[in-house]
Specification:
Layout lengths: L13 H9 L4 E5 L4 H10 L8 E4 L4 H6 L2 H14 L5 E5 L2 H6 L3 H12 L3 E4 L7 H16 L9 E5 L3 H4 L6 H9 L3 E3 L8 H5 L6 E4 L5 H11 L3 E3 L4 H15 L6 H6 L11 E5 L2 H13 L5 E7 L18 E4 L2 H11 L3 E4 L13 E4 L3 H4 L12 H11 L18
Parallel strand pairs: 1-2, 1-3, 3-4, 5-6, 5-7, 7-8, 9-10, 9-12, 10-11, 12-13
Length: about 425
């Protein structure tokens, strides 16, 4: 019972994570499901307009769900492809029912590919893992299937791992993209708008992968191994986060670090060492918010945590230095007890986590986590990149009166 969730919902499922990645790509997305599983994607997890994509779900009856309906699924899949030939590839996405009844998603994808002539990707998501796993596996599958060796270009940077499930609406990354473009950098894998497969293939020519979620690390590690592209794990939260990012960029790609930009993102103010803070959320994002609170606002005691089930396939991800300080909990009871022991003055996290606090005088700073609360708070006004985050906190939290320079900087990742 200790791992049951009674106060907060579970994170979005792995197949929702797969659908979120595929949203920006020209794919025909087919969910092998009795029908109900599509409701979780449409109504709860995806905050963008799915009518902009080719997203379809089967609606298997009881007998079909138990006995399998591969031939009927293939028949309707071919008809959908005939009606939507703008699709550049097909993705067959699994759900709990095919996982429990032994349906071979890979075999279905192979047969579909031979019938249509298109690449058909098998994404055997099962609904028993979180969206972190779905995003991780889908990005890695896309990279292994479509990337190819290209000539390196020192002015290209990939943004890897963005989905609204972890970072909210794409507009939250506007300041980051504006800054990168002002330096003359070309952004591949842009979170804004749709891309075709040819644009996706260009990612192998970049000088650097900027990984903005821990679930994007699998693709970045693959590209480092296969194409010698280094990566940095960082969501540039606050002044410190943006300053550190551009220092790393200056070492890898061809950009100037002039005086003006150093001053723009230079932390200023006085330390507030007596405040204790906890940040709850996606592991990398939470870690980077914690770095901002420490380095921009002078909080000496900042802990990060994430309520999640660790996928064994992502074991190497959690060994990264950037995530070394994140406390992982599978159950809300253990998380609530941990927070109670710390007695923080400040908690940053999705508004739903306030249910775990009970009667408490803790100052709560809401930062929505779409992968947890879905569309409920997705339209709330909040920022987290660069100076926008500092201004946002100054307005919403009276304990953060000014940004600060600290003697021992805490990096999100260097």
């Amino acid at each position: 019972m200790r791992k049951f969730l009674t106060s907060v919902p579970s994170l979005a499922s792995d197949y929702s994570g797969a659908c979120s990645v595929l949203f920006a790509l020209p794919s025909l997305n087919l969910l092998y499901s009795p029908g109900g599983c599509s409701s979780a994607v449409i109504e709860c997890d995806e905050i963008r307009d799915l009518r902009q994509t080719l997203f379809f779900s089967s609606k298997l009856g009881e007998m079909e769900a138990v006995m399998g309906a591969e031939d009927e699924f293939l028949y309707h899949a071919e008809r959908l492809w005939a009606q939507n030939k703008q699709a550049e590839f097909i993705a067959v996405i699994g759900t709990p029912v095919p996982a429990l009844t032994g349906v071979d998603i890979g075999a279905i994808a192979d047969r579909l590919s031979s019938r249509t002539g298109l690449t058909a990707l098998a994404l055997p998501t099962e609904g028993f893992e979180t969206y972190y796993s779905g995003v991780y596996y889908t990005l890695l599958t896309l990279g292994k299937r479509f990337l190819e060796r290209r000539e390196k270009k020192n002015n290209q940077v990939n943004i890897v791992g963005y989905t609204p499930l972890s970072l909210g609406k794409e507009t939250h990354l506007a300041e980051l993209m504006d800054e990168l473009e002002q330096f003359g950098l070309e952004i591949n894998g842009s979170p804004v708008g749709k891309i075709d497969i040819e644009t996706f293939k260009k990612m192998s020519s970049a000088a650097l992968n900027l990984v903005v979620s821990h679930e994007g690390l699998g693709l970045a590690q693959y590209m480092q191994k296969e194409y010698s592209i280094p990566y940095v794990m960082s969501v540039p939260v606050g002044l410190w986060g943006m300053q550190r990012l551009f220092q790393v960029l200056a070492e890898i790609v061809d950009i100037p670090m002039d005086y003006t930009n150093k001053q723009r993102y230079a932390p200023k103010g006085t330390a507030q060492p007596e405040q204790r803070a906890v940040v709850i959320g996606e592991p990398l994002f939470a870690s980077c918010i914690a770095s901002c609170l420490h380095n921009d606002f002078g909080l000496d005691y900042v802990e990060t945590t994430s309520l999640m089930k660790m996928d064994r396939r992502m074991k190497k991800v959690y060994q990264e230095e950037a995530l070394s300080g994140v406390h992982l909990f599978e159950g809300e009871e253990a998380l609530a007890q941990w927070i109670d022991r710390i007695q923080p003055d400040i908690i940053v996290g999705d508004p739903l986590y306030q249910r775990l606090l009970g009667e408490s005088g803790t100052q709560y700073v809401p930062i929505p986590h779409v992968g947890l609360s879905g569309p409920i708070y997705a339209s709330a006004h909040y920022e987290f990149i660069g100076s926008s985050f500092v201004a946002s906190l100054d307005c919403s939290a009276n304990f953060l009166t000014s940004s600060a320079t600290t003697a021992n900087p805490r990096p999100c990742q260097v």
